[in-house]
Write a structure and sequence with these properties.
By secondary structure, the chain is mainly alpha-helical. Helix content is 73%, strand content 4%. The chain has six helices and two strands. It has a two-stranded antiparallel sheet. Helix 4 runs antiparallel to helix 5.
């Protein structure tokens, strides 16, 4: 069981950060670097996956977190589609495509699992705690097993 105290503790966020870095590195090379619109779009979308996880968590409410996780999952779908474009434009190899696509699919599955957990828990989020309750429960903000 993992205890999540910050968004950096969320495995899906960490994986999304790795994906964003991997995509950025690919967009610096060869023809991809010159395809300015696709390069910009895929970098923004891959960053949006991790950013929405972070923003949703920091909002402090379970329903808002689920909503932002949904945005994050949408961005993951966008990245997956853009990877097909990058492959079709010969900006990345088939092997790079498969590796990056597998990463995106794994992140989407992790986000879906987290959303399912949050939908089925009685946890309402930090902003619904009284200040004293919040200070007493910080050690177990979210406990989950994925």
């Amino acid at each position: 069981m993992a205890t999540i105290r910050t968004f950096e503790d969320i495995e899906a966020w960490r994986k999304a950060r790795e994906l964003s870095r991997d995509i950025f590195e690919r967009t610096l090379k060869e023809t991809f670097a010159k395809d300015y619109s696709l390069k910009d779009q895929i970098n923004r979308a891959s960053g949006s996956i991790m950013d929405n996880i972070a923003e949703g968590f920091e909002r402090g409410g379970t329903k808002e977190f689920i909503m932002f996780l949904s945005y994050s999952r949408g961005s993951a779908g966008e990245v997956r589609s853009q990877l097909y474009r990058a492959l079709d434009h010969k900006h990345i190899s088939e092997e790079e495509f498969n590796n990056l696509k597998d990463q995106v699919v794994q992140i989407s599955e992790m986000i879906t699992s987290l959303m399912t957990y949050l939908k089925n828990t009685d946890l309402k989020g930090l902003k619904f705690h009284e200040p004293e309750e919040l200070y007493n429960s910080l050690g177990s903000v979210i406990n989950l097993q994925l």
